[in-house]
Amino acid sequence: MANRFRGYLPVVIDVETAGFNHNTDALLEISAVVIGMDEQGWLYPMEAVECHVNPFEGANLEQSALEFTGINPNDPDRIAMAINEVEALDSIFKPVRKSIKSYGCKRAILVGHNASFDLNFLNAAVARCDHKRNPFHPFSSFDTATLAGLAYGQTVLAKACEAASIDFDGRAAHSARYDAEKTAELFCSIVNQWRTLGGWNL
After folding, report:
1. Which of 185, 187, 186, 181 is CA-nearest to residue 47?
2. Closest CA relative to residue 179, chosen from 171, 38, 141
3. Which residues are catalytic?
4. For residue 65, which of 23, 19, 14 has the smallest C-alpha distance?
């Protein structure tokens, strides 16, 4: 793995938010899936980690965004599970740092579907919390929307998964965990297919 992506460990991040502005709108869910590699050099998704996140103090919550994701910040079950941003970042970063060390990598690189959105919200939360142990590259990322456009001619996650013969349940979409898991499957499918075609040798 350390040689495959120049020392960077790919980790899928998906966020669900209360709007599109990473500086003002609440981060409500975050999930991470570390990408593993077997002894033959094939990529596979590892187990997802997810957190429900309490809106930071003064956060904006756009009603249209909440209706789109189906997240109710005031749901008692969600309130019982939700943690603050710094706890969520710690929960996400701990297994990422462990995998970086085990694979001999130097840093993680975010993989996302329209990755700049997820990276901006991640970086904004890191800045708000003044978190000192962010394992991710601050601006580089792998975007599966771009990769899927190249590999399958599709840029929408559900359609790209369909083209890649990956099951996708639209009713489960817009959950950070589900979308992260499907994005991880898609990323592995594309990279492994590229290797099958002779694009990269172990």
Report:
1. 181
2. 171
3. 174
4. 19
Tokens (6 digits) for 22:
């990473």
Give the Cα separation of 57 and 84 in Å (integer).
10
pLDDT tens for the 202 residues of the chain, in order: 999 999 999 999 999 999 999 999 999 999 999 999 999 999 999 999 999 999 999 999 999 999 999 999 999 999 999 999 999 999 999 999 999 999 999 999 999 999 999 999 999 999 999 999 999 999 999 999 999 999 999 999 999 999 999 999 988 888 999 999 999 999 999 999 999 998 877 6
β-pairing, 27-37 vs 8-17, is antiparallel
- φ/ψ of residue 47, rounded to 5: -70, 140
One-letter amino acid at 57 equals E
- Is residue 54 within 8 Å of residue 30, measured between CB atoms? no
Determine the Cα–Cα distance for residues 177 and 45; give it in Å rounded to an integer. Answer: 12
Proportion of the chain in helix, strand, coil states, percent, rounded to 5? 40, 25, 35
First to last CA, the chain: 10
Contact in structure between 142 and 10 (CB atoms under 8 Å): yes
Q: Write down the residue that tokens 């593993």 correspond to.
A: 36
**Cα separation values, 202 from 39, 40, 113, 137, 179, Å:** 10, 8, 26, 24, 29
* Size of the chain, expressed as the number of residues it contains: 202
